[in-house]
């Protein structure tokens, strides 16, 4: 899969994690979906920061290719650090740094206008909070064998994301898997293997530190 598409997938992944954990503002049609999402939102609010370990499988219908990789995401409020084999992305709520290891490059951005919709997970999240329609799809079994609820989210307005399918464990209220379907033909399925709460990282953790990457070329796109 081309690097640009992989970058876009990683951005979508960050959006989905942030979106899921702050979804309490979404207006939904099914009462079951409302209560389940409210429980998930409460779990995040009480988490005091979290770390999720996941495996993501991506497929491009256009390029007819697929791949799988492991990663982690640390989230605290509207801040996150997303780590995948090819890239590390830091977001402190305002500025985003994306380090591409292969090229030893760091792209720094503070997107504005329509660019924010494609590059800034926080603004995507804010638009989704009032733009999702949620539907309860029934019950299923999670990859770990636990009982789970299935919920589908569909943006009311035009978006890069066509729909998001969530599998949420009944007992814990935590996500078991997240599937993202994009209009560009890329689909991503995220299976969460482990979730740690109470990971209260300092704010500096979510900021790129140049001293840790002395050989990296910094490309300031601001």
From TrEMBL:
What are the alphabetically sorted keywords of the record?
Signal
Signal sequence, start to end:
none
Q: Which InterPro entries match?
A: LolA/LolB/LppX, OM_lipoprot_carrier_LolA-like
Name the CDD domains for this protein.
LolA
**Where, if anywhere, are coiled coils annotated?**
none
**Name the UniProt record assigns to this protein:** Membrane protein
């Amino acid at each position: 899969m081309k690097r640009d598409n992989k970058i876009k997938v990683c951005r979508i992944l960050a959006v989905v994690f942030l979106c899921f954990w702050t979804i309490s503002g979404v207006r939904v049609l099914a009462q079951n979906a409302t209560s389940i999402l409210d429980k998930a939102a409460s779990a995040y609010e009480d988490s005091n920061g979290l770390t999720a370990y996941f495996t993501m499988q991506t497929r491009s219908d256009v390029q007819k290719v697929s791949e799988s990789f492991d990663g982690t995401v640390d989230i605290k409020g509207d801040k996150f650090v997303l780590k995948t084999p090819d890239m590390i992305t830091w977001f402190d709520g305002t500025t985003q740094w994306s380090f591409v290891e292969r090229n030893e490059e760091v792209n720094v951005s503070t997107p504005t206008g329509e660019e924010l919709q494609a590059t800034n997970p926080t603004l995507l999240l804010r638009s989704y909070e009032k733009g999702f329609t949620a539907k309860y799809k029934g019950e299923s079994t999670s990859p770990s064998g636990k009982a789970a609820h299935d919920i589908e989210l569909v943006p009311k307005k035009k978006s890069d994301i066509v729909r998001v399918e969530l599998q949420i464990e009944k007992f814990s209220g935590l996500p078991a898997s997240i599937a993202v379907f994009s209009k560009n033909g890329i689909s991503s399925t995220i299976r969460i293997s482990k979730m740690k709460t109470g990971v209260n990282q300092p704010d500096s953790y979510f900021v790129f530190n140049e001293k840790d990457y002395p050989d990296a070329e910094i490309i300031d796109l601001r």
